[in-house]
């Protein structure tokens, strides 16, 4: 129990609220399922959580908010966990309204530092009755009844577009609530793209933690007028990122496969180049474990002499790991926040 997420522990403390046909939205740790009422659906945007749930069993896993298999209009209780991004909460609450039967109830759980108190305003706009039922483990638990019915979610209703330009190359990038750096180009990726213009890489390329597909789309637009052609595959743990990257690739005409994956296990071949601007948060917590696992596995997915090109906040301890797992490391670019590293597999 001591290692359990606070929000999950708060839900277990109030498990009597969970009645009838149950759906959990935004679960982060499937280990608690054995302590909940038997069975239901789990909607998660995180591919690692999705893969941790057996395909056959009392809990049915659903990957992403736009899965056609979502049990619309059928749930008696929907639990919504607070997401990291405030914009994503609206998506989760709208999904809950579409999942609930007319007499169903919604349970909102989240830590105070995740913004659960301010999120209640959104909840109140979508329900006739809301009440705080508990404060525990730095969390709040809210119960909403008589939710306003919502239509099933579609990607087209939530998709947005914005433009980014680096080194004279412009691309259109898709966005969905909760995706990293939605609506703008983050400065780390900008520095990485500039390094790709200054010191080009070889293909095929894998973009690990590809987000909305910025790197693959930009590389295609940069390479085409130079008579270069190579694929840029993308892999990401988040359902919205996979959907956005596919949309961005389609608009740019970029070549490559976009796949969900938690780490490099889903990468089926070796690449001349691995590029990445990896995440270092899980929810509101700093968590570099995903990148550490990636670096430990990277060499197996690089061709002999292949290159790792990585950008990260300069304070993160990646240079030592790159040298340990990939090969000699050099710094290609650096500003007051970010560093671009390059390493060749020996």
List the helices and strands and how they pair.
Elements (H helix, E strand, L loop, with lengths): L5 H8 L8 E4 L14 E5 L2 H6 L6 E5 L11 E7 L4 H14 E12 L4 H9 L2 E10 L2 E9 L7 H4 L1 E7 L2 E7 L11 H12 L6 E4 L5 H10 L8 E5 L2 H14 L5 E3 L10 E6 L4 E2 L2 E2 L2 H10 L3 E12 L4 H8 L3 E6 L3 E7 L2
Parallel strand pairs: 1-2, 1-4, 2-3, 4-5, 10-11, 10-13, 11-12, 13-16
Antiparallel strand pairs: 5-7, 6-7, 8-9, 14-15, 16-18, 17-18
Q: Examine the coordinates and then state which fold CATH places here, giving the name of the CATH topology of the largest domain.
A: Rossmann fold
Low-pLDDT ranges: none
Strand order of the largest sheet: 3-2-1-4-5-7-6
Largest sheet: 7 strands, mixed
By CATH, the architecture of the largest domain is named 3-Layer(aba) Sandwich
How many distinct helices? Answer: 10
Order of helices and strands: HEEHEEHEHEEHEEHEHEHEEEEHEHEE
What's the CATH class label of the largest domain?
Alpha Beta
First and last CA, distance = 44 Å
Please tell me the overall pLDDT: 92
What is the total domain count? 2
- Percent of residues in β-strands: 25-35%
Description of the structure:
- This protein is of the alpha/beta class.
- It has two domains: 148 residues, 3-Layer(aba) Sandwich (Rossmann fold); 186 residues, Vaccinia Virus protein VP39 (Rossmann fold).
- Helices cover 27% and strands 33% of the residues.
- The chain has ten helices and 18 strands.
- The strands form four sheets. A seven-stranded mixed sheet has the order 3-2-1-4-5-7-6, with helices on both faces. The chain has a seven-stranded mixed sheet with strand order 12-11-10-13-16-18-17. Strands 8-9 form a two-stranded antiparallel sheet.
- A hairpin with a 2-residue loop joins β6 and β7.
- The protein is elongated.
- The N and C termini lie far apart (44 Å).
């Amino acid at each position: 129990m001591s290692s359990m997420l606070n929000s999950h522990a708060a839900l277990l403390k109030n498990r009597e609220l969970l009645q009838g046909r149950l759906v959990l939205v935004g679960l982060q740790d499937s280990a608690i399922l054995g302590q909940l009422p038997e069975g239901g659906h789990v909607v998660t945007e995180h591919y690692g959580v999705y893969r941790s749930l057996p395909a056959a069993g009392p809990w049915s896993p659903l990957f992403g908010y736009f899965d056609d298999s979502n049990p619309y209009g059928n749930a008696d209780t929907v639990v919504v966990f607070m997401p990291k991004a405030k914009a994503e909460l609206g998506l989760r609450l709208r999904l809950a309204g579409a999942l609930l039967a007319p007499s169903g109830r919604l349970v909102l759980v989240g830590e105070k530092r995740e913004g659960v108190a301010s999120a209640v305003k959104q909840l109140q706009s979508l329900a006739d009755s809301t009440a705080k039922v508990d404060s525990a483990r730095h969390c709040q638990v809210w119960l909403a009844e008589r939710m306003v019915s919502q239509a099933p979610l579609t990607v087209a209703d939530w998709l947005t577009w914005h433009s980014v330009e680096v080194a004279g190359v412009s691309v259109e990038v898709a966005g969905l609530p909760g995706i990293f750096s939605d609506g703008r180009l983050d400065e780390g990726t900008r520095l990485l793209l500039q390094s790709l213009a200054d010191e080009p890489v070889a293909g095929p390329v894998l973009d690990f933690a590809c987000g909305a597909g910025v790197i693959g789309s930009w590389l295609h637009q940069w390479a085409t007028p130079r008579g270069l052609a190579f694929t840029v595959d993308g892999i990401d743990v988040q359902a919205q990122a996979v959907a956005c990257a596919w949309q961005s690739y389609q608009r740019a005409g970029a070549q490559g496969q976009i796949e969900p994956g938690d780490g490099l296990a889903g990468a089926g071949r070796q690449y001349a180049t691995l590029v990445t601007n990896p995440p270092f948060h899980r929810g509101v917590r700093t968590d570099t474990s995903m990148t550490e696992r990636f670096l430990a596995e990277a060499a197996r997915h690089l061709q002999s002499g292949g290159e790792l090109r990585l950008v990260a906040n300069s304070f993160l301890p990646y240079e030592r790991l790159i040298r340990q797992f990939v090969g000699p490391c050099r710094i290609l670019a650096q500003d007051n926040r970010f560093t671009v590293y390059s390493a060749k597999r020996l």
